[in-house]
Amino acid sequence: MQIIIEDVISICPIEAVLGLQGTGHTGSNGSSVADRIELFVQWQKTIAENIFYGPMSARETVVFLLIDDGVRDRGHRKNFLNRDFRYVGISKGYHPIYSKMVVMDFAGGVKEP
Q1: C-alpha dihedral (11, 14, 20, 26), degrees to nearest 10
Q2: 2 in a domain, yes or no?
Q3: Tens of pLDDT along the chain (113 residues)?
Q4: Are the C-beta atoms of 37 and 47 separated by less than 8 Å?
Q5: What is the pTM of this model?
Q6: Are 9 and 40 in contact (CB under 8 A)?
Q7: Which domain, by its residues, includes 71?
Q8: How big is the CA angle at 24 (ends 110 and 31), to the nearest 5 degrees?
C-alpha cells in the first residue's frame, strides 16, 4: 500500500490546528473534519482525523496513537491501519491547554476543486 503525502491535503489540518481551542474534532467555529477538508479539496470515499495533544516527539505521537490505550474503539489505530486511506495531511501547532497538538487528516482520495 502506498500512502501519498499531498501538498493540497497537508493544508487541511492547519485549519484544525488554528480552529481547535479545546479538545475533540469540532472546531471553535463549529466546523467538522469534512468542513475543514472541503475548504481545500473534494474528498473521495472516506475521511478521518487523528488529533494528539501534548509535547511528544513525532515518533512518540505515532506510537501513542497506534497503541491507543484508553480509547474504547481504538479509532486512532484503525485510522492508521485503514487500507482505504491513500492520502494524509499532518500539521502541528500550539494548543492553549496542552501546549502542543498534532492533527492528521486522512482521505481515501482527493480531487482539487
Answers
A1: 10
A2: no
A3: 444 455 555 555 665 566 666 677 777 778 888 888 888 788 889 999 998 888 889 899 999 999 988 888 888 999 999 999 988 888 888 888 888 888 888 999 888 66
A4: yes
A5: 0.80
A6: yes
A7: 7-111
A8: 55
Q: Flag whether 83 is in a domain.
A: yes
Please list the helix, strand and coil fractions of the chain in percent, rounded to the nearest 5, in that order.
Answer: 30, 30, 40
Instruction: Count how many domains the chain has.
Output: 1
Grid coordinates given for 12: 487541511
Q: What is the CATH number of the domain that holds 43?
A: 3.40.33.10
Phi, psi of 39 (to 5 degrees): -65, -25
Q: Which residue has 492533527 as its cell numbers? A: 103
Instruction: Please report, for residues 19, 36, 45, 100, the alpha-carbon distance to residue 22 in angstroms, rounded to integers and kept in the order given.
Output: 9, 16, 29, 12
Closest CA to 49 of 103, 93, 111: 103
The three cell numbers of residue 77 are 489505530
Are 48 and 82 in contact, with CB atoms under 8 Å apart?
yes
- For 47, phi then psi, to 5°, come to -140, 160
